[in-house]
Design goal:
Blueprint lengths: L1 H9 L6 H23 L4 H15 L5 H15 L7 H21 L5 H7 L3 H25 L5 H4 L1 H20 L9 H6 L7 E2 L10 H12 L22 H14 L4 E8 L3 E8 L5 H5 L2 H7 L6 E3 L8 E6 L8 H5 L11 E6 L5 E5 L16 H15 L21
Parallel strand pairs: 1-2
Antiparallel strand pairs: 2-3, 3-5, 4-5, 6-7
Helix pairs in contact: 2-3, 2-4, 3-6, 5-6, 5-7
Length: 415
Amino acid sequence: MSKKNRQGKNFEPRLNSETKKSILAVVFLGAAAVLILASFNNAGPLGNFLYKIFEKLFGWGYYLLPLIFFILSGFFFASKDQKINSITFLGAVIFVLSGLGLIDILSPRNSGFVGGIVGAVEIPFGYAASIIIIAVVIIASLLTTFNFPVRLDTFRKKDTDENKEDEEQILATVASANGQQKSEPEKQKVKDETKEFETKEFEQKSFPKSASLKTEHSKLKAKGYIAPPLDLLKSSVEKPTSGDLRTNVNIIKRTLESFGIPVEMGEINIGPKITRYTLKPAEGVKLSRIIALNQDLSMALAAHSIRIEAPIPGKSLVGIEVPNKASAVVRLGNLMSYPDFSGFGPLGFVLGRDVNGEPIFSDIAKLPHLLIAGTTGSGKSIMIHSLLTSLLYQNSPETLRLILIDPKRVELSLY
């Protein structure tokens, strides 16, 4: 009986993170409204008393309090991936304090007691330098509060869009030239080395929680078990940066032809981590000659390492896999939202995505002696966590029993 009671306590329903954020957002919004009313003496005796105290402490900086509360409220209402932690509130406190210091430097009579303490930074650094220092602290505190990184990628977005438009224009030009006979001089042929090739871009589809997964959860709920919501997992969609496709096609073609291997370029598959360029060698060319040029192609493409798949299974083509400039993060929540995932049964688990960006699922019942191996940093731990998470989402404690052995107590300590 006591065992059943302990099990019942372990599965008590709790507020999820989104509900907690909504509650905090409402509280911040209400606090901001009360502070504004207090500044107009419309918050009752207690509110007016607090206003007088805060005004003496903060001076004009009093109005920073409702401002930061309004901002935090809107941020928690709008953000899906932001987690609640002490760093967020610490950044907000630093923002208010640094704002008080800036007010003290600009207008010492209106900074209040706290502003006078923070504004003392003007004594050792002087007027101009102290303004710069406090401005830096204000910006850093805002970035800390909202966990918002400033990257050069934001400013390079325009260049990336232009490159994509250039690639689309190239593909359109090559496609329009398909079927036309090439009777131009050899010099013109060298300029148009890139023959027609089809580009299959990596695309992460975003699905709502699949109906079949909802059905499984409803079955588990009927048995007295509340399955964790899929919203706990991140499902953001990202796209990789594959680089200049036309340049890479030309480099591969010219490098192979310089070693006496004529090839015809095929389609391009853009995956989350690599881009695969397919090619068809001329008749009589041994595949071993292409494989032997692995390092030469890697140097020509300025890639850390490439992989040559000769031939591609099921195709009479050779694949050259080149790492992307920037990989796309494949989210477990996004893959588990696919309708196909539930078709693998209660022992199905997520493996990842292939080079074409298509999801890969499997059934652990078909892999009774599964061995996960790889180099350091290749994703073995992520694979283990994905497997266990997939099983936990589809089974209740009554239907799933696990024996986890971790001699080093590193990978499985969370469980």
